[in-house]
Amino acid sequence: MIDHSKRYLLIFESLLLVLSCVTLYATSLYIWGEDISAADDVNDKPVELHQNEAANLNGPAMHYNNYADNGVKSSIFGSMNTSPKVKLVKKTSFWFRDSTSFWFTHHQRNNSHHSDEFKRVCYYRLPESDSADELQPEDVDPFLCTHIILCVGAGATFANNTIVLDADNYDELIERMVALRQQNPSLLLLLSVMRGFDDLVENRTAVIRTAYNCRLFVQHYDLDGLDLDWEFPNWSPDPQLNQKEKFVMLVEKISTALRLVEPTYLLSIAVTGIEPMLDQCYDLPRLSSNLDFISLMAYDYHMYQWYLPFTGHNAPLYPHSSYHGFLATVNIQWSVQALLKRGVPEHKLMMGIPTYGRSWRLLSPEHQGVGAPAISGGFGEGSITYPAAVEFVASADVAAMDAEARVPYAARDKDWISYENVASAAQKAAFVRSNGLGGVMTFTLNCDDWSPLSSIRFPLHSVIKRVLGVGNNSSHDVP
């Protein structure tokens, strides 16, 4: 007797495969709006998965770009290698090989994350060595954050129509981070791309190919999405570049490519909260419609600059009543309201909370308050981690909470710091709750007190999690 059920099942599977291929092809044509085979002089050869070819790449400033003059690249974030090695993804068989099994495991993992939960998006810089002085993947608490955004070395780069990492060991490090899902299957992992935007957006065909390869890259590393940290589009002396519009195009293409087969892939960006840059750099309504969330870099409002030779808060929650004009806008409350007024939905806005502080060298120890004259950046080359700030405060001449800005500062002789503590982090998390925002973004896990010898590991992240609670409807009293 002929088993018709097996025959029908085989026919059905064959038809389903053909239909999927046709749909994918038709959708691709609709999305891209052009035939990428007719590329205009853009590296037509297939991109290989693991060439490790040396590349001399000059990209824009990174998430740490405003730290460069203050030396954070060597103090907090480690040395920066400017000659990345290429890690690319195959176009042949690679995607089809993994698509079926990956669809189910990845889709189920993403959907296990509750939509009504406040997001806790944490940046984490992957270590450059196995040194005990660096935060290793296994030492990261997988339950502190709902999302972890991975930063690699000098910054992942757009180049050669794909994403380029700058060292060989990042494959292993990313795998070690992915292994954290064994403890917390709901943990979502993204990679932050920080360089290569300027050249990429000038070539539409390169954008299309890069968008396609972004999906393959994310799938290959078993990530949940990408974070685009361009600092900053359209912020250049040449207004003809029109990077504001081109950034929208890049986001649209990557967003579509990521979700073409896997609709639960995530895409986010990090934006400044400074007034003149918001309108010049970003088309926020169009960006928001193509993103899962937007992280507000609500820090670096004040740091030592030769044209700003006085102390100020790194991340003030509110302005001083004496501030007027531009100074009245350099605070988190203003930035949050500005993004909301410009079209960012509340549930897509992640408010940044820094775990690092800023340091100044005072002109005189006789003036140790906010706005005191300064002659340079202070110890730590202008930046300070939370554990270093705690140590500094223990022997400070002055240690106070600014009643208006709601953030602490401290001074010792000619050294002055603005930093975050448990109380200020709790107040900022409460601000997120009361304003109905989507959650918080922290920068970074590395700068919190992660030492296993500490009585409370990751105290800043822990209090943020406690204040935000489990869901938007849960109640919690701020400590």
From TrEMBL:
Specify whether Hydrolase is a keyword of the entry.
Answer: yes
Name the PROSITE patterns for this protein: GH18_1, GH18_2
Positions in coiled-coil regions? none
Keywords, A to Z, come to: Glycosidase, Hydrolase, Membrane, Transmembrane, Transmembrane helix
- Residues covered by the GH18 domain: 118-471
GO process terms (BP)? carbohydrate metabolic process; chitin catabolic process
Q: GO molecular function terms here?
A: chitin binding; chitinase activity
| One cellular-component annotation, GO | extracellular region
Q: Transmembrane segments in this chain: where?
A: 9-32
Q: Does the keyword Kinase apply?
A: no
**Which InterPro entries does the record associate with it?**
Chitinase_II/V-like_cat, Chitinase_insertion_sf, GH, Glyco_hydro18_cat, Glyco_hydro_18_chit_AS, Glycosyl_Hydrlase_18
Q: Family per UniProt?
A: Belongs to the glycosyl hydrolase 18 family.
Record PANTHER family: CHITINASE (PTHR11177), CHITINASE 11 (PTHR11177:SF390)
Q: What is this protein called?
A: Chitotriosidase-1-like
Its source organism is: Hirondellea gigas
Could you read off the lineage of the organism from its UniProt record? Answer: Eukaryota, Metazoa, Ecdysozoa, Arthropoda, Crustacea
